[in-house]
Design a protein that fits this description.
This protein is mostly helical.
Length: 248
């Protein structure tokens, strides 16, 4: 019974965080590890359980989703799917101990990138530089690969890249973040399931609670009028996640 309660609470919180800023897997992933699931299997399972939440959140944001910059929405989705497949394949050949050691550093990089992203964009524009479709596509592919490898902090990474390639509307960025997270997670989960890396009983409990949390979080996030507060919240969540994983 205690394990069920832990999974339900973790799923609700993870879904809400995913909808607002990304990184909810860093709630569900430690919960699974604490309950005895091996790290790589816990990561794969957490990715599966985040998928319904991504879908629910994307639906709540459906009127805000759009592409900015030099790439069309369809191209961005295809690139994200390919990146997710590449990342999932890389995870399958990574030793468990190496995986645990890499995670906090990836998350630290993501948080710092999102924190300084707006300043970098301003610098690029001030110098008259342009970010073309090639660089934009490469950046999205790399982040999608990160998401296919380790889902934790994916939202922060996507938001950071959106900032760097010229996106302006933070609510639109959140909507696209959830859509891309759903697409690449679907590809990744298919790969994980084929390799037998899903803890199905835990996944069922987390999936339901994460879906509910994701919808609640998305509706609350869209009501925020001052986006600078939302950006500050995102950075704070990322910093907290990083600290937790460095101390695990």
């Amino acid at each position: 019974m205690l394990s069920i309660i832990i999974l339900v609470v973790a799923g609700l919180l993870a879904g809400m965080v995913n909808a607002i800023a990304g990184g909810g897997t860093l709630i569900s992933f430690p919960a699974l590890v604490w309950l005895g699931v091996p790290p790589i299997m816990a990561n794969a399972t957490a990715t599966l359980t985040a998928l319904p939440g991504y879908i629910g959140s994307a639906w709540a944001y459906r009127h805000d989703i759009s592409a900015e910059g030099s790439l069309r929405l369809r191209s961005i989705i295809v690139i994200a799917a390919l990146g997710g497949l590449a990342g999932a394949g890389l995870l399958l050949i990574t030793p468990g101990d190496a995986f645990v050691g890499i995670v906090p550093w990836l998350l630290l990089t993501a948080t710092l990138l999102f924190a300084i992203g707006p300043r970098l964009v301003e610098l690029v524009r001030a110098k008259g530089l342009t970010i073309g479709p090639g660089l934009s596509a490469f950046a999205i592919f790399l982040v999608a690969g990160y998401g296919g490898y380790f889902n934790g902090g994916l939202g922060i990474m996507l938001l950071a890249v959106f900032s760097l390639i010229g996106f302006q509307n933070l609510h639109g960025m959140n909507g696209l973040k959830n859509l891309l997270s759903a697409v690449l997670s679907l590809v990744s989960v298919t790969t994980y399931a084929t390799a037998g890396l899903i803890a199905w009983e835990s996944a069922a409990i987390l999936a339901i609670s994460t879906t509910i949390g994701g919808y609640i979080g998305a509706r609350q996030a869209r009501r925020i009028q001052h986006t600078e507060y939302l950006r500050a919240l995102i950075v704070g969540i990322g910093a907290s996640m990083t600290l937790v994983f460095f101390t695990i």
